[in-house]
Amino acid sequence: MHERSLVNALLAQVAELAAQERASAVRRVRVRVGAFAGVDTELFRMALADTSTVELFVSTEYDVVEAPLRAVCLDCGTRFELAEARFQCLNCHSPAVKIVEGDAVILEDVELLLHGA
Question: Which of 57, 69, 71, 110 is geometrically suited to a Cys-Cys bond with 102, CB 3.0 to 4.6 A?
Fold first, then answer.
């Protein structure tokens, strides 16, 4: 399950940030998971839940936001959401489209509990 390795890499980044900021805990982590990122969001959430035994993440709340696949047509400029992996403009039917969202896992926000706060 590659979702677990993604979560491990993501939380390593968060732990590094927490160490830099001298945080005692991580309150909240917000992650955007694209529909075309190749990630099973339910398995991703389960892998996040398994981190509750790590001291830094014991009471962390995780917000996993699912992002739709969005594109822009390079010919007519239309921005649109793709309901399926049919890479064609919904307006002019051109195949010249560029994905602008929904193909990645993005760490959007981290809320830390600082020492003494």
Answer: 69
